[in-house]
Sequence to fold (142 residues):
Amino acid sequence: MTRPGPALGLLLGALLCIAAVTPARSGVVARIDQSSQRMQVFVNGGLAHVWPVSTARRGYFTPNGNFRVGLMAPMWRSRKYHGSPMPHAMFFRGGYAIHGTYAVGELGRRASHGCIRLSPGHARALFGLTRRFGGAKVVIRD
Fold:
């Protein structure tokens, strides 16, 4: 067995120093601002998308907080709201989900029963990113 030369040792030391100071930024973060009805999607720490959403209308509630996506379904039907379609559903807290909507004219204003609605294409894109990166963080603020 031969010993590594000094050049290899210096290279390994430099890589360890870089790794120690580089922040770990990986994955998907969906940041929802309820006051502006916008979602910012960050991938590996960089802003990738800004999309209009609909959160809870008057009389309903969208929770604020930090969550992780749990159950994901390419097509879900609401048990609570008469089998309403929820394409590309990503549940983050009990019955609350991010999902596509066919009521795209309502995007950008409060219109849901509490879920976060996106256009079908944006929901599909977020669903794909979340699958590819093995999950996503959901951050919701007023």
